[in-house]
Amino acid sequence: MSPRLYEEIRRKNTLQRLTDLTIFFLLLSLLAYRLRFLDNHGLPWFLAFLCESWFTFLWVIIMNTKWSPVVHKTYPQHLQKKMDELPPMDMFVTTADPVLEPPIITVNTVLSLLAIDYPANKLACYVSDDGASPITFYSLTEALKFAKIWIPYCKKHNVQVRAPFRYFTSENQPQSNIASSEFLQEWTHMKNEYKLLVQNIEAVERNPSSCTYEFFSKVEKSNHPTIIKVLWENKEGLADGVPHLVYVSREKHPKYPHHFKAGALNVLGRVSGVMTNAPVMLNVDCDMFVNNPQIALHAMCFLVDNENKERDIAYVQCPQVFYGGLKDDPFGNQMIVLQEYLGRGMGGIQGPFYSGTGCFHRRKVIYGLSPNETTETKVFSSSNVKSVEELKNTFGHSTKLVESAVKALSGINESSSSLSDITSSIEEAIQVAGATYEFNTQWGNKVGCMYGSTTEDVQTGLRIQSKGWRSVYSTPKTPGFLGCAPSSLTVIMVQQARWTTGLLEILFTNNNPMLVTIFGNLRFRQFLAYLYCNTWAMRSLPELCYNALPAYCLLSNTSFLPSITDPAILIPTSLLVIYNTYTLSEFLRTGLSVRAWWNTQRMSRIVTTSAWLFGLANVALKLLGLSETVFHVTPKDRDEHGEGAHGAANASRFTFDESPVFVPGTALVMLHVIGLVVGISRWVRNGDLTAWIGEVVCCVWVVASFMPFVKGLVRKGKYGVPWSVVGKAGVLVGLLVNYSYIS
Ligand SMILES: O=c1ccn([C@@H]2O[C@H](COP(=O)(O)OP(=O)(O)O[C@H]3O[C@H](CO)[C@@H](O)[C@H](O)[C@H]3O)[C@@H](O)[C@H]2O)c(=O)[nH]1
Ligand SMILES: [Mn+2]
Questions:
Q1: What is the mean pLDDT of the chain?
Q2: 457 tagged catalytic
Q3: Which comes out higher in pLDDT, residue 256 or 645?
Q4: Cβ atoms 486, 495 nearer than 8 A
């Protein structure tokens, strides 16, 4: 028997299942109880019933997704025994703006990719620059010079983290008593060279006019012809050399849509198609550097094994892991627990979502192949004129691209070396990177990255899985890639609004998960898992309503909870206790703190009721034809010291701006403070609290969850909620109080 390349291990989760079911049962009891007494209570009771119905629905989805988790173990050390040669791989990096995404970040990502443990003659790295920036271009040329000494250094000393900004952090200093003097010398030399690289790039950033490339003259970011430059070609095909490095800035024209990142990835797919046409494509965001140099080998364990069911693995996704996160995750956006339980849970169904970065794709799958259309059944031959014409309708008019697609789809160059003279393909590459190339083709629709959603990643993964393909998480001990999560509330809000917009948009495409379950091959349980995230934006309404109810009840002298003398109060109380203990235990089991749990819970209240609401509004406006959805690029911290957000002082404090996204949170806080005052004064007058104790507890809970807003109301400057926001929230609260207040 030949050695295994990977193993699938079912995770035991009996206790978790029991808890899931208990919560489900309690939710059902609560609903039944509410229904039974619907007539005796007013509006709050009915609203609570609606919200809780939604939460129950959500719980069913979550329970389904987490039900049968699996983990995968990979054995890259067996690869050699399995095959003589590793398959070629094209690596894509996307960047869009030299200011929001400082070139030094992209440079580090590129360097870490060029230096991975993989035969260099099997690799090509393509950088897409949607910013069409001479500074980015210059930075890459400088990075290339550095790469020529950096790569041999990394391989010689088996460096673990090959992004220099992380390698040269202060905590990573070699210890002079252990390290050899030869090593210390080399280390110092590399450090100085890297410093020089940084200085050169910064000098050009300060003085952009010093970049005088002829082909960048007259280039405007959103209106320019295609620029493709082969920065480096590994001509001799050296396995220990420097991989090909190609700069691509696709044509932009104000009249033609460019489809943001999805468009950029499709251009990279085509450009690499005519140049190297590797069967495996890795794509990373510009801020996601390689953290485990063996990661491509781990991924190949899933992709090369053609013996049995491994065949239907379409892509290998590395969970998004972030470095240098703030202590206890004040912004609740490290997503560790989410990926650990929901991601692994999906692994037990049809596999995780494609999440845009750190993902290894099969080219033929991206080109639209289904798992049952294996290479033998789908006969492609370039002599078959009809099929060539057909393929041109799909892939566009470039003959060279169509030929390369035929090869990719029929798996001809699966293992053969992809080395060809890439410079000679530049003309063809420029052609396929044109702004009109995709007109009347299937790009963005049936092949490539999907268009029509600002979360092109989830949509693309869904289309792939709708054909029946599976996917897996690759989670070696050392995470494959590390990135940077935004560390300011204002930026997080924009990102969350974009995500929820995009996820909801998917429901309105012909790639709707329900349709592809009925008419395609998406499994039912996988459909539910997609529904979980596709409906994030819609969750804002019940969340907002439920979060406003306690205050509303205190103001209007009504209640939405059973009184504490009613035994039924045990249902919501045990729900509160069990649910929170359960989520807390997930955090503790993942090695996170109680504080991190609370921060994440609280952030989830804040984000759902604000940013997600705007996601919902964005989609509504789009459906009404009033506006288009836009991909706002997340600004990345420059992070000179490679320490992540840790470095910055006050980094964990919440910042606000005039954006309307802060209105709901501010209004909720104001409403609850007024509600508490009214409730307590009524209590002082009547001396009887029993009727509202539940509402008061909930009120306090909401205020605690929105504590950052309470602080924002008393702080100043960027740490304070601006007056315009307070004003708008005040008007809303005034209206609501006026409507509901009964003394
Ligand atoms: O017009 C554009 C816009 C963005 N990008 C690139 O897209 C990537 C992701 O953009 P970012 O602003 O960092 O968005 P995030 O919200 O951090 O990205 C997450 O969410 C996206 C979907 O919304 C996924 O595509 C990403 O992989 C995932 O990391 C970056 O490399 C950008 O340079 C482009 O190439 N062209
Ligand atoms: Mn990002």
A1: 92
A2: yes
A3: 256
A4: yes
Nearest to 695 by CA among 555, 579, 574, 568: 555
Q: Which residues pair with 72 in a beta bridge?
A: 8
Ligand 1 atom 18: the closest Cα is on which residue? 356
Nearest-CA neighbor of 743 among 673, 674, 679?
679
DSSP letter string over 429-475? Answer: HHHHTSTTTTTTS-BTTTBSSPPS-S-HHHHHHHHHHHTT-EEEE--
Name the H helices within 437-569: 456-466, 489-506, 513-518, 524-534, 536-556
Give the integer Cα–Cα distance in Å for 532 and 510: 18
Ligand nearest to the CA of 248: 1
Helix axes 707-714, 594-609, angle to 10 degrees: 70
Model confidence, pTM: 0.95
Q: What is the mean pLDDT of residues 549-571?
A: 92
Q: What is the pLDDT of residues 571-601, one digit of tens each?
A: 999 999 999 999 999 999 999 999 999 999 9
Residue nearest to atom 36 of ligand 1 (CA): 261
Task: Answer yes or no: is pLDDT of 389 > 90.
Answer: no
Of 537, 461, 449, the C-alpha closest to 496 is 537
Domain range list for the chain: 16-65+541-599+644-740, 78-373+421-487
Superfamily holding 78-373+421-487:
Spore Coat Polysaccharide Biosynthesis Protein SpsA; Chain A (3.90.550.10)
pLDDT tens digits for range 232-243: 999 999 999 999
Identify the active-site residue in 130, 305, 329, 639. 130
Residue 285 marked in a binding site? yes
What is each CA distance from 214 to 144, 431, 501, in whole angstroms? 20, 20, 40
Among 167-176, 497-506, 513-522, where is mean pLDDT lowest? 167-176
The three-state secondary structure class of 227 is strand
Give CA separation, 21 vs 69, 194, 535, in Å: 16, 55, 22
Pocket probe mutation, ligand 1, options 271, 285, 321, max atoms within 8 Å of Cβ: 285
User: How many of the other CB atoms lie within 10 Å of CB of 238?
Assistant: 12
Residue 342: how many CB atoms within 10 A of its CB?
21
Of residues 287, 329, 457, 639, which has the active-site annotation? 457
Whether 20 is a known active-site residue: answer no
Around ligand 1, the residues with Cβ closer than 6 Å are 94-96, 101, 128, 130, 260-261, 264, 285-286, 356-357, 454-455, 457, 495, 498-499, 502, 631, 633-634
pLDDT for the residue numbered 385: 56
Mutate which of 110, 261, 453 for ligand 1? The one with the most ligand atoms within 8 Å of its CB, which is 261
Which ligand sits closest to the CA of 283? 1
Q: Which residues pair with 360 in a beta bridge?
A: 282, 316
Ligand 1 atom 32 nearest Cα: 95
Of 70-84, 126-140, 186-200, 615-629, the poorest mean pLDDT is in: 70-84
Give the least confident one: 31-45, 89-103, 172-186, 719-733.
Answer: 172-186
CA distance 514 to 78: 40
* Nearest-CA residue for atom 28 of ligand 1: 356
Question: From CA 458, how far away is CA 116, in angstroms rounded?
Answer: 27
- In eight-state DSSP terms, residue 230 is E
Give a three-class secondary structure readout of 83-124. CCCCCCEEEEEEECCCCCCCHHHHHHHHHHHHCCCCCHHHEE
ipTM: 0.99
Give CA–CA dist 136/130, Å, rounded. 10
**Residue 742 pLDDT greater than 50, yes or no:** yes
Angle at 648 between CA 639 and CA 632, to 5 degrees: 60
Residues 416, 278: Cα–Cα separation, whole Å: 10
H/E stretch holding 315: strand 313-317
Q: Which atom of ligand 1 is nearest to the CA of 495?
A: 16
